[in-house]
């Protein structure tokens, strides 16, 4: 079976993880007032670094190189997102929502990759993608369970800041 789509999608996944790493690193640095969220983002940052490594190993096993152009594009996109978020007063909330959406984007990609790998007889690649999928689903679940509490915490901080400003 032709593996051209699998090869291209693996390059896309690698670039996606490069983007995620940059985005998570930038986000984690600015979450000092949200220690629980910061800790989970930092944990997922480490997972993301390992995901990139596992993808590189799987790609190497198929003699596929990463795409420098796609990786650079992903990093530039993440930089733009981080820069835009830094200027928003509600950055923590926008970042949480963006991360939640991005996790679901990754989940969909890994589901497609698993199917493509299985169809191509690349069971090792499918296994790697299944492991990564579990981590992405866990992060999406965690974010989904904490959107309300993060929103409440943000709104409380904003109210406290407004009270201090009025004094």
UniProtKB/TrEMBL annotation:
InterPro entries, sorted: DUF892_YciF-like, Ferritin-like, Ferritin-like_SF, YciF
List keywords of the entry alphabetically: Coiled coil
Listed Pfam families: DUF892
- Does the record carry Cell membrane as a key word? no
Q: Tell whether Hydrolase is among the UniProt keywords.
A: no
> What sections of the protein cross the membrane?
none
Q: Where in this chain does the entry annotate a coiled-coil region?
A: 6-65
Name the PANTHER family for this protein: PROTEIN YCIF
The name under which this protein is listed is: Ferritin-like metal-binding protein YciE
Name the species this protein comes from.
Answer: Vreelandella songnenensis
Which taxonomic lineage is given here?
Bacteria, Pseudomonadati, Pseudomonadota, Gammaproteobacteria, Oceanospirillales
